[in-house]
Design a protein that fits this description.
CATH class of the largest domain in chain B: Mainly Alpha
Number of helices of chain B: 6
Distance between the termini of chain B: 57 Å
Helix content of chain B: 55-70%
Structural class of chain A: mainly alpha
CATH architecture of chain A: Orthogonal Bundle
Largest sheet of chain A: none
Number of strands of chain B: 0
Helix content of chain A: over 70%
Oligomer: heterotrimer
Largest interface: A-B, 82 and 94 residues
Shape of chain A: elongated
Chains: A mainly alpha (119), B mainly alpha (184), C mainly alpha (474)
CATH topology of chain A: Helix Hairpins
Radius of gyration of chain B: 22 Å
Strand content of chain A: under 5%
Chain lengths: 119, 184, 474
């Protein structure tokens, strides 16, 4: 196998209907930090879980965009995204099982009363 | 002007994602926050469709938007009043987090955008149900059968654990009789 | 073909076999015979542990996704030893009425986390590594929340779950940037693409190492540790602080040496800083603790800082010292937790001041605890002295004299608080000491193994040589 011919990103973009990798990255990075912000400032367990989902989602966009624009010769990015989604689902299921247990046994409608996340 | 059209669609989706993501972490009403999260996840699926990854978009809608968000809403309805508002965090913590996140965001964005990405020019594989299915069950290089099998351990363990944790134990039925129906 | 797969994945296969067997028992065995399941599992796991030491050739499977070698098999065996002792210690706890109904589920969850650690240690690409990591941490959260009737336990579970999900997210962001640079996720291809180092790589690496530091609970990513350790059932706390931490240390060293070896100058300073911070802050917090579980939690944070000492100087001695240290750390810490658990099972007391005058009523337990404390602090002739000695030697060989100096200072500080516990048991008077009691046979066996181990592993030098030989070939 010879050395692959590198083409510039702009050429690649032109071939792909004018979408740019950088645009995707701005979206995913911003979403990632929005998620982190939510994780730091939220007090309710379910909303913290939602922030985590945002973070994982932004990582998925990253993987898919890199797969599409930079490395379309294999499907690593896509598979990473698929498995991250599967793991996120398992994570959410477990989190909600624990949250429901907290609610049911301690009758706390407001989860903040049970758990004061100490940081 | 097909090129411009996909660009315009992208910007609309991107704006929706960022706007609703911000709302979902700042909204004071929990059910609204969940709804905004739902919109973000659906818009992400739209991004995948825009890139022609139909399978991924379908998975995103079915699992993320359909599964996780429904689960979250279910647990919200079970544990909170729908219109309940919660206390904001202390100002100091809010602004400290905001500052830290803004610095991290600016720094990361600067590094990422100034990087000269080089695209590989190797021949692209076609991404469709057929190729994804074959790669998922292939045990050669670029095959994922091991991960596919191993993740079943995770799902089994998650299932068992979730049942054990939320199962009603003998002797604690009296703590909350209203919910006896939801327990296994 | 099939035989080759089986022989290379034998540890994983046999562990999953045991887990599935427990599951089948749970579904089919009559309630009356349920208590047979625990001893059978113990025996099977013991056989599995011993078989793990049988040398077998390494190799790669699934196109490089699964890679194993003598060194990796040894790491898994070290974890096995710890898990075996934990299983022995857990019997008394599992036989309590509240837990007995779900004892099989406990075993299944425990084995699935261990499976995750196996796959993490043997991973040949980032996807397998990530999945292994998640299998190692999601069931851990359920184990932490296992005491469903205690609010602190549920709180520990949800805290651990959310924090580990956040750290996975950060880690994944780093991995996605590596993927952007290289276009591959296989460990054997990745190093080709990483040099020359670009700012993007550095950013990805910082995200990646922060995620790992979360899992290892290094300072400043340790904030979740104390609450989770305190809230979890004691048996799970010991699992957290010993097995999870050991596995995380193993995979960190494998990744740093295998994938990021050429970027040594970049991560050396980060590891240096994390090591100093972790040792010092962990110690300073441990000084103030009054609850014995919290105390052990913080002391285990500072122990993680010592583990990092073996990483700053990159050679085979460093890795050998890490594996040796973790083996001894497993024995000493499990010995301490074994005593704490034995006392908590009978009396429910967990404060250090409850231990006052323990020697008068329970001399054997006190002596075991004293030995564990000496070994954790690193007093000769216990094994803890030798394990720390090798780590310090390795760092000094690399010229990190300041780091060694700080580590020695920290050892002296830690000596103070470990001896406080010993003082409480032997010297402090107490009108109502914990009553004399006798633990069950499993607990006593577990304590005996750890005590023998603390002496034998330190004094019997072929063990170190054995590890060294395997690592040299790696």
């Amino acid at each position: 196998m010879g050395k692959p011919i590198r083409i510039t990103l702009k050429q690649a973009n032109d071939m792909m209907g004018g979408l740019a990798l950088q645009d995707f990255l701005v979206v995913s990075t911003s979403m990632f930090f929005i998620g982190i912000f939510g994780f730091l400032t939220r007090r309710n367990l379910i909303t913290i879980l939602m922030s985590v989902e945002l973070i994982l989602n932004s990582v998925n966009i990253n993987f898919v965009a890199f797969n599409y624009f930079l490395h379309p010769e294999a499907m690593h990015g896509i598979f990473f995204a698929i498995f991250v989604i599967a793991v996120a689902a398992a994570e959410a299921a477990v989190a909600i099982a624990i949250i429901i247990n907290i609610y049911r046994r301690f009758k706390s409608i407001n989860i903040e009363n049970v758990s004061e996340m100490k940081y | 002007m097909e090129i411009a059209a996909s660009k315009v669609i992208f910007y609309i989706i991107a704006a929706a994602i960022l706007f609703f993501a911000l709302l979902s972490v700042t909204s004071k009403r929990i059910l609204r926050a969940a709804t905004y999260l739902f919109i973000v996840l659906i818009s992400t699926a739209a991004l995948y469709f825009l890139l022609n990854y139909q399978f991924l978009g379908a998975v995103q809608i079915a699992l993320y938007a359909g599964g996780i968000v429904v689960m979250i809403i279910f647990s919200i309805l079970l544990t909170s009043h729908a219109g309940q508002k919660f206390e904001p965090v202390s100002r100091l913590k809010f602004f400290a987090s905001l500052l830290a996140v803004l610095v991290g965001w600016a720094l990361s964005l600067w590094v990422i955008l100034s990087h000269p990405f080089v695209a590989s020019s190797k021949e692209a594989v076609e991404v469709n149900m057929d190729s994804i299915g074959k790669a998922l069950l292939s045990y050669d290089r670029n095959g994922y059968v091991l991960v596919f099998e191993v993740i079943s351990i995770l799902l089994l363990a998650a299932m068992i654990g979730a049942i054990v944790i939320s199962k009603k134990q003998p002797g604690d039925g009296e703590t909350n009789p209203d919910n006896s129906k939801t327990s296994k | 073909m099939l035989l080759q797969y089986l022989s290379l994945m034998r540890q994983e296969v046999s562990l999953i076999f045991i887990a599935v067997l427990v599951l089948i028992c749970e579904l089919t065995v009559n309630q009356r015979y349920k208590k047979v399941v625990i001893p059978i599992t113990l025996v099977l796991f013991g056989v599995h542990t011993i078989l793990g030491f049988v040398p077998f050739d390494g190799g790669k499977l699934f196109g490089g996704m699964f890679a194993t070698s003598h060194a990796q098999a040894l790491m898994k065996s070290v974890l096995n030893v710890g898990v075996f002792i934990i299983l022995l210690q857990s019997v008394a706890w599992l036989k309590k009425e509240v837990n007995f109904q779900k004892s099989n589920e406990f075993l299944i969850l425990l084995f699935s986390t261990l499976t995750g650690m196996y796959f993490m240690i043997s991973s040949g690409d980032f996807l397998m590594f990530y999945i292994g990591l998640e299998i190692a941490s999601i069931p851990m959260a359920m184990l932490a929340a296992f005491d469903t009737f205690r609010s602190k336990s549920s709180e520990a579970g949800i805290k651990f779950l959310l924090n580990s999900a956040l750290s996975s997210g950060i880690l994944l962001f780093g991995i996605s940037l590596f993927y952007a640079i290289s276009g591959t996720i296989y460990f054997d291809d990745l190093p080709l693409y990483f040099s020359p180092v670009s700012p993007l790589f550095a950013l990805g690496f910082i995200f990646f190492i922060s995620g790992l530091a979360f899992k290892m609970s290094l300072v400043p990513f340790h904030l979740w540790t104390a609450d989770v350790y305190e809230g979890s059932p004691t048996i799970v706390t010991s699992y957290f602080s010993v097995i999870s931490k050991g596995a995380a240390a193993f995979i960190t060293s494998i990744l740093l040496f295998k994938v990021f070896f050429n970027q040594l100058y970049l991560w050396k300073d980060i590891i240096y800083l994390l090591s100093v911070l972790t040792m010092t802050v962990g110690n300073l917090f441990a000084l103030r603790q009054t609850n014995i579980k919290r105390f052990l939690a913080f002391s285990s944070i500072s122990q993680a800082g010592f583990i990092l000492l073996g990483l700053v100087n990159v050679d085979s001695l460093g890795v050998t010292a890490i594996i040796y240290f973790i083996l001894i750390y497993i024995l000493s810490n499990l010995s301490a937790f074994g005593v704490v658990m034995a006392i908590a099972n009978v009396t429910g007391k967990e404060e250090i001041k409850d231990y006052n005058g323990l020697y008068k009523t329970n001399p054997l337990l006190s002596l075991t605890m004293m030995l564990a404390m000496f070994s954790l602090a690193g007093i000769p002739p216990t094994a803890g002295f030798f394990s720390k000695f090798f780590l310090f030697t390795d760092a000094a060989k690399g010229g990190y004299y300041w780091l060694v100096f700080i580590a020695v200072l920290n050892t002296i500080i830690s000596l103070y608080y470990y001896l406080l516990v010993v003082k409480a048991m032997f010297i402090s008077p107490n009108e109502q000491p914990i009553e004399r009691f006798r633990s069950d046979i499993y607990t006593r066996t577990a304590l005996l193994i750890t005590v023998v181990g603390i002496f034998a592993v330190g004094i019997y030098s072929p063990i170190f040589e054995y590890i060294r030989n395997i690592i040299d070939k790696f």
